[in-house]
Write a structure and sequence with these properties.
Helices cover about 35% and strands about 20% of the residues. By secondary structure, it is an alpha+beta fold.
């Protein structure tokens, strides 16, 4: 394949249109078309599960075609979390002004257009050209003029045949992790919220747990509606609370060291549970010279300021900033159990958050919230029951991280034309494995 068959041109050479979504307010309904904003695009996909919905009438009557992308259109977040990319994969979607809509023409596959935008040099150029006096924006007209280099369809299909299986496996791991997390969450709710085993005993139903687990639960509820012998305890009685900190950003000796430093921007996509990829790191000197504290693997981190209630579990040893708390199980409460306990109380913690400027949860918030605390034996049984689920989630996260690194190594080589056939790809695999 000769270089002349590749086309180097502004991005809009490969587009039918480049626009952005609606600015007018839209009604919110429980069913109907999805209203996708910048916050609903993450990890290379549209998070339909969190997107708001609008009425069919408003979708048809209040929106023009530019706000209603077609299947195969590529979305780019232009405001807020800039530069996130996804492909529309279903009908009945509309986007607001924080999202750019790029409609590919027949010279480029939609999935290849996404790869072009994700290629590191193109992606960095897109972000660096964002402008704004207060909040930076990616301007659609400037994005459309960005120069790119695109091969013919045959070469695009080769690149996609190499990249797509990697992306599919990453997506499969994400879906499996969501299922595993839902299983742990359902078990927690049955044991500690609905008191299912005790209620089943009271109603004379057959045991649905192992005999060892079944025998641990009380036979009846007390006058307050909780299993007999379970005492209401403050949330702080379930886990130790560790504060975070930020080394002085003006001191370069504190930064770019070996210690991962978590901030809310590192929050993993829904279903991932574990945080392993960290944008910033600090030095041992920065750790010692600030209020930041190192926490071990399998520590639950909760955001306590502004975006209150984001939850993730550390996939390795790390520290975090002062807008978060680390939660570590104490006594019979294991670190695996800490995450679903915190997850089950997030909405209450958010409701109790306060502050004159930003919503904030404090150590006193954890003291004010109480939960029925079961026996140590039940807590240990729960830890043993859910630990295999979370172990598998972490294994999938780490596998996906390795796959993503391979993806990122391949992408610029495919985009540059270094890998143009299967022989070149196999040579690359030999060099990198």
């Amino acid at each position: 394949m000769s270089d002349e068959t590749w086309v180097e041109a502004p991005l809009d050479h490969f587009l039918t249109r480049a626009t952005y979504g609606f600015t007018n307010p839209m009604p919110t309904t429980s069913e109907g078309p999805y209203m996708v904003t910048a916050k609903d695009i993450n990890d290379g996909r549209i998070l339909y599960e969190q997107a708001r919905r609008t009425s069919r009438a408003a979708f048809v009557e209040k929106l023009t075609d530019k706000s209603r992308p077609n299947i195969g259109d590529v979305l780019v977040t232009k405001d807020g979390t800039r530069g996130r990319i996804a492909i529309v994969d279903r009908p009945d979607v509309c986007v607001n002004q924080s999202v750019a809509v790029l409609q590919p023409n027949p010279s480029i596959r939609p999935t290849f257009l996404k790869l072009v935008l994700e290629e590191p040099r193109n992606h960095q150029r897109m972000l660096s050209e964002a402008e704004g006096s207060t909040i930076k924006h990616i301007y659609v007209t400037r994005l459309a003029k960005q120069p790119v280099r695109v091969p013919p369809l045959k070469a695009q299909d080769l690149a996609l045949s190499i990249i797509t299986p990697i992306e599919r496996k990453i997506e499969l791991n994400r879906k499996l992790n969501a299922t595993l997390e839902a299983m742990a969450r359902a078990l927690f709710r049955d044991w500690f919220v609905d008191f299912g085993p005790t209620r089943a005993k009271m109603e004379g139903r057959a045991p649905y747990l192992s005999p060892d687990q079944w025998s641990l639960f009380p036979d009846r509820l007390d006058g307050e509606g909780k299993p007999e012998g379970w005492e209401d305890k403050p949330l702080s009685d379930f886990f130790a609370i560790v504060g975070g900190g930020t080394p002085k950003t003006s001191n370069p000796a504190f930064w770019d060291g070996p210690v991962p430093w978590f901030s809310v921007t590192d929050t993993p996509a829904p279903g991932s549970v574990f945080v392993t990829n960290i944008e910033k790191t600090i030095t041992e000197t920065g750790l010692a010279g600030s209020s930041a504290r190192l926490v071990p693997k399998v520590t639950t981190i909760i955001s306590a300021r502004r975006t209150v209630g984001n939850l993730e579990v550390t996939g390795r040893e790390m520290t975090f900033n002062q807008s978060c708390y680390g939660l570590q199980g104490v006594g019979a409460v294991g670190n695996w159990a800490t995450y679903p306990i915190a997850q089950n109380t997030v909405s209450q913690l958010q409701a109790m958050a306060h502050g004159s400027v930003f919503s904030t949860i404090t150590r006193q918030t954890f003291e004010a919230l109480t939960l029925p605390k079961p026996s140590p034996e039940i807590l240990e049984a729960f830890e043993n029951a859910v630990s295999p689920l979370f172990d598998k989630i972490l294994a999938n996260v780490n596998e996906s991280r390795t796959l993503a690194q391979t993806h990122d190594l391949l992408l610029p080589r495919l985009m540059s034309g270094e890998i143009r056939n299967w022989k070149a790809y196999m040579n690359f695999r030999v060099r990198t494995h």
